[in-house]
Amino acid sequence: xxxxxxxxxxxxxxxxxxxxxxxxxxxxxxxxxxxxxxxxxxxxxxxxxxxxxxxxxxxxxxxxxxxxxxxxxxxxxxxxx
Length: 81
Fold this sequence. Notes:
Blueprint: H1 4-10, H2 15-29, H3 50-55, H4 65-80
């Protein structure tokens, strides 16, 4: 599924098409076998990325700047170090 990144980049100006692409890749990742979605096949959960992409307006709010700083510090401290 390495082609998701380039597709999202090509659709960077069309958020609605990005949402459709994410849903299509999520459906394709299930291989149309819906028996083990919550145990062994969890790639379909990328469909939940549609929610923040839908609400993103292209600007970083000043009141959220501290949250993103703290979040990235938490992630970098947790997974890198």
